[in-house]
Design goal:
The complex is a heterodimer of chains A (about 190) and B (about 450).
Chain A lengths: L13 H11 L11 H11 L6 H11 L3 H8 L13 E6 L2 H5 L2 H12 L13 E6 L11 E3 L2 E3 L5 H12 L22
Parallel strand pairs in A: 1-2
Antiparallel strand pairs in A: 1-3, 3-4
Helix pairs in contact in A: 2-3, 3-4
Chain B lengths: L17 H6 L4 H9 L2 H11 L11 H6 L10 E6 L8 H8 L1 H15 L3 E6 L4 H16 L15 E6 L9 H8 L23 E5 H5 L1 H7 L1 H5 L2 E2 L2 E2 L1 E8 L5 E6 L4 H6 L13 E5 L8 E2 H5 L11 H4 L3 H4 L7 E6 L4 H15 L5 H18 L5 H14 L7 H25 L1 H4 L14
Parallel strand pairs in B: 1-2, 1-4, 2-3, 7-11
Antiparallel strand pairs in B: 5-6, 7-8, 9-10, 9-11
The chains are: A alpha+beta (about 190), B alpha/beta (about 450).
């Protein structure tokens, strides 16, 4: 993150700002901090799939809290990526019910075909980051991978995995969120 | 086939829209409650129904509602716990994504009963796509006058919002959930004070599971006494069971409480038996936290009676020979399953999800994971087996929240019922450490 000193201060798009204000109105006026998690989700979607210290400072500014109040939250919840990620983060469920239906084999298979390693940097083409996560609450459709807001289920055949990866490779923009007209290009930030 | 009180219309096309939902009787409980009943009368019906918290604890919902403090001039809240994260459990996700208006209807009727004017659905962050579905349905409900000011001309106001989590199992614990809703780390609070007195923003708050709230409309429509006619004894009504693992037909099943476990597993109406023509080895019947039982003990109690899907029957025999209904996360394991590996997997889960506040849980879960890892990977020692039991005992009862018990029970139960298999992992360590190794001993050891 040596380049961050010169990087321009991040700013939310107008659409995201409007969405943040809508969300803040869901809580009492003096409880704006309650919007922490929804705003962090928006920030992660806006800024390439992870939340840098600068982005977290921006979240603090928007919510009117101290930066440390954001850091302590972003480091507690597993959905927030604190390091740069590839274009698509594949979150593979590794918990019991998925393991019973082949999640270990799925992880090994994904490592083989993407070249990325779980917990490591993105694949060399910058497309995929692999992350193991705990139970995604879809155990009856195991094994499962989550990519952003999409669940890919019953990935127990090479064909099913291929179909998922082809779909992701063909995505130029990430899918638009309800308050956006089009999805943002999801910048590859694995430098 | 039993009655389906929640999911009867779940596969109707367009049921996620307000129009279709209303055509199938939707929002009747809101009209009935707001126009013809006092809030106290609604609470009374829920009490009479015998409904017990469907998130896992099984505490009577009506009783929980009656504990809500009502100090003058202080707003109170109903918060729906949609942080479904207990391994093996996926019923709330199905219910919310397919029947969003059922939860919204329950939230309106429930909020009216509790005198809440602002209510929240706290949904786990991974389910952002379900949050979108709920927000769309909520917008429809506002447009139709079921939410907002002066609902149906009754003078009652309600705003309803959906709030996402960020990925943390612990936020399913109700005080951790409230901390999270306040924008903080999900550290469970010391109790008392209980949320009913000081909950969200220190205001009186009731936190209920999705499935509990979704049962409120039918209870109000048909009456608590009618609801209580279904089921057995203190296990009234229907329950959503999340069937997963090595079953032929995994999925969500709404059952009348009292269904025999054997019928649930083997009948084609439900799970259709074990996949690949294999034998059943063990079941975790109520989500990963509850004790695992070998085939013989899940099908019949120690006294030889048929085990039923009820709170009482599943816990018959206590933790020596019984288990719990819990969240209804029903995980079946076939004869090729390695119990040590599965126990290690669950321990890793609890270690990962421990919030770290209490030393016995923070350190103990890590210790159990480490010992189980070495047993599974061929480096275990015979004394490790009793060490596991000892660590589990020292966690249990010594933590702020029940995550400690949730981590300790599965380990203690696995050793209790499958000690031979643990010992084999020491005596045949190289063989046991091979991927896919199957314990060749007696299928069931009681």
């Amino acid at each position: 993150m040596e380049s961050t000193a010169t990087a321009a201060k991040p700013q939310f798009s107008e659409a995201a700002q409007a969405e943040i204000e809508r969300i803040c109105k869901q809580y009492p006026d003096d409880r704006r901090k309650s919007a922490m998690l929804p705003v962090l989700h928006i920030a992660q979607a806006e800024f390439g799939g992870w939340v840098s210290p600068e982005v977290q400072d921006l979240v603090a500014e928007v919510l009117g809290v101290k930066p440390i109040e954001v850091y302590e939250v972003s480091s507690f919840y597993t959905m927030f990526n604190l390091k740069p990620v590839g274009k698509h983060v594949l979150e593979i469920c590794r918990t019991g019910p998925c393991m019973l239906r082949g999640s270990d084999e799925l992880t090994a298979h994904l490592e083989r075909i993407t070249g990325a390693k779980v917990g490591g940097p993105a694949s060399e083409d910058g497309l995929f980051t692999l992350k193991e996560v705990e139970c995604l609450a879809a155990c009856g459709f195991a094994p499962i991978v989550q990519v952003r807001e999409q669940y890919y289920e019953q990935l127990d055949t090479p064909e099913a995995v291929d179909a998922m990866l082809t779909e992701l490779r063909n995505q130029v923009h990430r899918p638009a969120l309800p308050w956006e007209e089009t999805g943002l290009p999801n910048a590859v930030a694995n430098n | 086939m039993g009655r389906k009180l929640l999911t009867e219309h779940i596969n109707v096309e367009g049921i996620e829209t307000l129009d279709v939902y209303r055509k199938h009787g939707g929002y009747r409980s809101v009209e009935k409650a707001l126009k013809t009943m006092t809030p106290e009368e609604v609470v009374e019906e829920v009490k009479k129904s015998g409904l017990r918290g469907r998130g896992g604890a099984g505490f009577p919902t009506g009783l929980k509602w009656s504990f809500l403090a009502k100090p003058e001039g202080v707003p109170r809240h109903l918060v729906c716990n949609a942080d479904e994260s207990e391994p093996g459990t996926f019923k709330d996700r199905q219910l919310m994504s397919k029947l969003p208006h059922l939860l919204i209807e329950g939230m309106i009727t429930g909020s009216y009963a509790l005198g809440a004017n602002t209510s929240y659905i706290y949904i786990r962050g991974e389910l952002l796509y379900v949050l979108r579905i709920l927000e769309k349905a909520i917008a429809e409900a506002y447009a139709a006058g079921f939410l907002g000011k002066n609902i149906l001309g009754s003078g009652y106001d309600l705003d309803l919002y959906v709030h996402p989590g960020g990925g943390a199992y612990i936020c399913g614990e109700e005080t951790a959930l409230l901390e999270s809703l306040e924008g903080k780390r999900g550290n469970p609070r010391n109790k008392p004070p209980f949320p009913a007195v000081q909950g969200l923003w220190a205001r009186p708050t009731v936190v209920n599971n999705v499935e509990s709230i979704a049962a409120v409309p039918v209870i109000v429509n048909e009456g608590g006494d009618e609801y209580a006619k279904i089921g057995v004894g203190k296990s009234t009504g229907t329950k959503l069971i999340s069937a997963c693992g090595h079953l032929k037909q995994p999925g969500i099943y709404e059952i009348e409480l009292g269904l025999p476990v054997e019928e649930f597993i083997y009948s084609d109406e439900y799970c259709g038996g074990i996949w690949k023509g294999r034998e059943l080895k063990a079941v975790v019947a109520g989500g990963s936290s509850v004790p695992i039982l070998p085939k013989e003990l899940i099908l019949k109690t120690a006294a030889g009676e048929n085990r039923l899907m009820t709170y009482e029957s599943l816990s018959d025999g206590g933790f020596v020979t019984g288990t719990m209904l819990g969240s209804g996360g029903f995980i079946a394991m076939d004869e090729t399953t390695c119990i040590v590996r599965n126990t290690w997997n669950f321990s890793r889960f609890y270690h990962h999800e421990s919030c770290g506040q209490c030393s016995p849980c923070r350190e103990g879960t890590g210790w159990m994971e480490k010992v189980l890892h070495r047993l599974e990977h061929g480096h275990g020692r015979m004394e490790d087996i009793d060490l596991l039991v000892s660590v589990a005992k020292q966690i249990e009862g010594n933590t702020i929240c029940p995550l400690g018990e949730a981590a300790a029970w599965p380990v203690a139960a696995a050793v209790r019922h499958f000690r031979d298999e643990f010992e084999w992992h020491v005596t045949h360590s190289q063989q046991a450490a091979q991927p896919g190794a199957v314990y060749p001993g007696a299928l069931v050891t009681v």
